[in-house]
Design goal:
By secondary structure, the chain is an alpha+beta fold. It is built from four helices and 19 strands. The strands form three sheets. Strands 1-2-3-6-15-8-9-10-11 form a nine-stranded antiparallel sheet. Strands 4, 5, 7, 12, 13, 14, 18 and 19 form an eight-stranded antiparallel sheet that branches. A two-stranded antiparallel ribbon has the order 16-17. It is globular.
Amino acid sequence: MQQPPLEPQPEQQLAGFTPPPQPDWQAMADRSESQQRRRKRMWMAAITVVACTLGVGAGLFILDRGDKGGKSPGPGGASQSASGAPGQDSNEPTVPGEPNLLRDRSGQVNIALSPDAVLGKVDNGNVLRLRSNGNSYAQAAEPVVDASKSFTVSAWVYNEADGGSRFAISQGDGTSYSFELGREDSNGKKSWVFRMQTDEKGAASTAVAATSEGLNTVRTWALLTGVYDAQGKTLTLYVDGKEAGRAPVAAAWSGQGPLQLGRSRHHGIWSGPWAGVIGHVLVWDKPLTADQVLALKGGKLDKEIKPVGSWLVG
């Protein structure tokens, strides 16, 4: 079924990442169909081999673990793929020869795509389209940052869902997220949100959130940036380079689970499936300043301020 086109956003034609006026999602889906079939065949083949070798119980365990980023390469693989081999397109979003792995351009952690995650291109960038279902997400093999220490996470997002809370990026463990960045829908109020946990139990009452006020969150491009300053004890949300919300936080909890694109962990279950597009995902192990976030929005951030993780940036 043809997806609705994105509406033009001429006011957001920014340096470094230009939102598209009318991307053809059906064409993108057609181009990615063979890759999706290949990923599904690979998953099923792996499950069959394990089941035959170790028995049905082991096969079911691998099926459950298959979305835990197990397809990421071993030590050295991420660094090699990020640099690119001679003759290969350095702007490709995936690891050479591995169409189901988003390439970390910073050379740290590649991210495995689920079968229903669709890659596409827009002006000056690559994007990931997620379909708001349990089989449409992307997951790293490990955490990218220690969420108990200062960090920054940023991405261009386009949310197509009118209702429901939706999370573009998160990280945590089997029980709860440590942090999540996306769109909140609470009691009819819709806002962009950057939220963190402050207690190891992961109870909802221990969460602290910075949210936007009065900003459109549906069918519009937005550059979301969340900054946790451990020394300053603050949590700050920026939207399109401008501060949109701030909250005090005494101390943050860091679960050991991997980075996620398109979902978040709430009370032991996956929640908030993203409906729309994510691109230009960047993570730093330091808090960016307001001036640096504004420079990031314009594609003018000092190159010496290097991220520890970067995906879909080519």
